[in-house]
TrEMBL record:
Descriptive protein name: Prenyltransferase alpha-alpha toroid domain-containing protein
Keyword check for Repeat: yes
Top-level division of the source organism's lineage: Archaea
Keywords: Repeat
InterPro entries associated with the record: Prenyltrans, Terpenoid_cyclase/PrenylTrfase
Single annotated GO MF: catalytic activity
Prenyltransferase alpha-alpha toroid domain: residues covered: 39-122, 276-370
């Protein structure tokens, strides 16, 4: 005796099972049943159900679907149709079932069998089209139209792509709307709705109302309920009503081991066709709503610092180039080593870098002294060694003397280049001397600082000196931020604020470039530079000292630059990306899907603020029925570290503390979630969030929408929550569902 036969013998001994796992268990049942079915109709129903459930079970039945589809194709007659049993005369009903099944199975059929399936589908369509009487279909060609063959042919051709305005569907739809049926009334109604939906015919409201009325009845069979539930889902969006009817259907499932099945006749003997048909339609119904609960891919951490990319840019001599490939550069090496402190650098790479910096300091220092030109290259080589505490007292003393001796010959406290004294070089020299231990109140330092401050009251740039006059060229962001960095802690904040304000005015496209776009009359064109990670991060940090906060925008800018590849191969850009992103702890975006997937697997604490004892008991009872005993009721309104469901009035909790990504507010009688607005009085809002060690689901309600918060659970709708947030509004006796995100 095979396994499925044994199960059929003990069906009467099992009891309805818990909801969890019913889809996969039902798939197990129908997969094993498929080897025992003999009729084309049963085989087709199994194929339809398995194909419809694949999204819910992760395509685990693809091989079974492929083999079952090939078995069904092997039974096709030469005229393109199928009979009820193999080798029987073709008829419209069974041909329609087979065509629907093959069309639903097509995505899961092996590529090597695809041509055979296409050929079989083409033959079936041809058979149905030639069998039409013009006003509908009879059971066989040239017979009078009847409801059952017509409704099945319309459904099948609709699945193939026929529209209700096309011939021969147009007349058949008219026939269906008024034709009597010998099928049980609930099943005939369900098939009518399914067929009309398949050909995109607007199903009349009175027909939908009849479906709902029957589903509220306790006198219909399980097969009736399965077919009607599936039909209703096709024409009515997911809401409390549809989820309630699905819950009713789930309650009727029977579980035996890892099998789940439905049956209408609870008396022995049981027949396989009855169980297969009922279970197939039931699986189609309960799996259909899985389209509302997508499985989300794991979210990537956008704050991952590009450490490995930075390490890979190091040259063989130990330094880092500005751009790879390229010679090692003092500034690039300085910032690369600063950034590597946030990574896990090897001692060898750091030692090589310091060795290169020491050699660079020697070469740059000798050139600086001989030319009386203080260079940024020397400054960065020196700062690299100072930050690593790699200079002895004697070496520091020599560096002080070298910097002092590199002043311009014609001015004390002035450092510069061929254009004369420069605010940039002078500020860097001041910073270097202070870092080497020269007191900030030293007369040389103070004289140099005064000169730098006197050259501008709003940004710095290249300074031009002549025997007759001096002037500053267009201020630039690089020079200005470098000077502010160098002088911070040496001069009062108010002396630097005008320059900080100037930096604010230079912001463009979410960041800072060397220059803000400007028109150059000499060239007759607009000079426009792209914002860089280096300048954007440096300016953001400088401005933070003056009370400006651009951190969130800068974070987005840096993430965007990293993800776009804009920083690839650029040592300084990559280094600043590492340093800035390393400040942020990754808080992944939380969704309702995350909460839904945790239900049943984690212990949730239920907080019901404002609900009555009876309402709370209903909520808890529904959750336990849906997910098992993994819920406890809190005697406080506080949210702790674990998993929580919080049902509370609007305004009871600060959502941003648990979900910083979602915009949520209540104002002027409306609730605004992201960019969606709904009336407070007739809406509830579902918002996910994080706790320290778990997740939280907020269900916010108003006094007049409190009943909706309860029915969210009692109808089973909670199983289908998804998206960044959901807003459910009840208007004109209908639910309006808005998924945010």
């Amino acid at each position: 005796m095979n396994r499925i036969a044994a199960v059929l013998m003990v069906l009467l001994l099992v009891i309805p099972g818990a909801y969890a796992g019913q889809i996969s268990w039902s798939v197990n049942f129908l997969e094993d049943t498929s080897s025992n079915v003999q009729s084309v109709r049963e085989m087709s129903l199994v194929l339809m159900a398995l194909s419809g459930a694949q999204k819910a079970v992760g395509n685990t039945s693809a091989d079974k679907i492929d083999s079952l589809a090939m078995r069904l194709l092997s039974l096709q007659n030469s005229d393109g149709g199928w009979g009820y049993l193999p080798n029987e005369t073709s008829n419209v009903v069974d041909t329609s079932y087979a065509l629907i099944a093959l069309l639903k199975a097509e995505p899961y059929v092996s590529p090597v069998h695809r041509s055979a399936l296409i050929e079989g589908v083409s033959g079936a369509v041809s058979y149905l089209l030639t069998s039409s009487s013009g006003n509908g279909w009879g059971y066989v060609p040239d017979s009078a139209p009847a409801f059952y063959p017509t409704v099945m042919a319309v459904w099948a051709l609709g699945e193939y792509g026929y529209y209700y305005t096309e011939s021969p569907i147009k007349n058949a739809v008219g026939f269906l709307l008024s034709a009597p049926s010998t099928l049980p009334a609930p099943q005939a109604l369900a098939l009518k709705v399914i067929a009309l939906h398949a050909v995109n015919y607007p199903v009349p409201d009175d027909i939908v109302s009849n479906v709902e009325e029957l589903l509220r009845s306790d006198s219909i069979t399980t097969l009736d309920r399965a077919m009607l539930t599936y039909a209703l889902e096709l024409v009515r969006p997911l809401d409390f009503t549809t989820s309630f009817f699905v819950s009713k259907l789930l309650e009727l499932a029977n579980v035996s081991g890892d099998y789940a099945y439905w049956l209408s006749s609870p008396t022995y003997p049981l027949t396989t066709p009855e169980v297969v048909k009922t279970s197939a339609f039931a699986l189609m119904a309960v799996a259909y709503l899985e389209q509302y609960t997508p499985q989300l891919p794991a979210e990537q951490n956008p704050y991952v610092a590009p450490c490995s990319a930075l390490e890979s840019l190091q040259n063989d001599d130990g330094g880092w180039p500005l751009v790879k490939p390229g010679p090692s550069n003092e500034k690039a090496t300085y910032y690369a080593l600063l950034a590597l402190k946030y990574c896990v650098p090897t001692n060898k790479s750091v030692e090589k870098a310091l060795s290169w910096a020491r050699e660079a300091l020697t070469v740059d220092g000798a050139r600086m002294v001989s030319t009386h030109r203080f260079s940024p290259a020397y400054f960065y080589a020196l700062e690299t060694l100072l930050h690593s505490n790699a200079l002895s007292a004697e070496e520091k003393e020599k560096a002080i003397n070298d910097i002092i001796s590199s002043q311009l010959p014609y001015g004390i406290g002035l450092w510069g280049n061929n254009l004369g004294p420069q605010p940039y070089q002078t500020a860097l020299a001041v910073r270097a001397l202070v870092d080497l231990g020269v007191p900030a109140n030293d007369s040389l330092i103070q004289r140099a600082v005064k000169w730098v401050l006197d050259t501008s009251n709003g940004g710095w740039g290249i300074y031009v000196s002549t025997p007759y006059f001096s002037y500053m060229l267009r201020p630039d962001v690089m020079t200005t931020v470098s000077i502010i960095e160098a002088l911070q802690g040496i001069v009062p904040e108010d002396k630097l604020r005008p320059h900080a304000d100037w930096l604010v005015s230079q912001r463009v496209d979410g960041g800072w470039a060397y220059w803000k776009p400007y028109y150059d009359p000499m060239s007759g064109r607009v000079i426009q530079e792209k914002p860089t990670v280096e300048l954007t991060v440096r300016v953001t940090d400088v401005l933070a000292e003056f009370g400006y906060n651009f951190s969130r925008d800068t974070l987005n800018f840096v993430i965007g630059a990293k993800q776009s590849g804009e920083i690839n191969g650029k040592s300084v850009e990559t280094a600043f990306a590492v340093m800035y992103l390393s400040r942020y702890k990754f808080v992944p975006k939380v969704t309702l899907d995350d909460v839904r997937l945790a239900l049943g697997s984690e212990l949730f604490t239920l907080v019901t603020s404002g609900l009555s004892k009876n309402e709370t008991e209903k909520v808890v009872g529904s959750l336990i029925e849906l997910y098992g005993n993994s819920f406890v009721v809190a005697n406080t309104t506080e949210i702790g570290e674990g998993y929580y469901i919080v049902v509370a009035p609007y305004g009871s909790y600060n959502v941003s503390a648990y979900n910083p990504y979602l915009s949520f507010r209540v104002e002027n009688g409306s609730v605004v979630v992201a960019n969606y607005t709904a009336p407070v009085d007739s809406s509830i809002v579902l918002v996910p969030g994080y706790t320290a060690k778990g997740k939280v689901l907020f269900v916010f309600y108003s006094p007049s929408s409190r009943w909706m918060a309860v029915e969210l659970f009692t109808t089973g709708f909670i199983r289908y929550i998804h998206g960044d947030a959901m807003v459910l509004t009840y208007e004109n006796d209908r639910f309006i569902q808005k998924v945010v995100g």
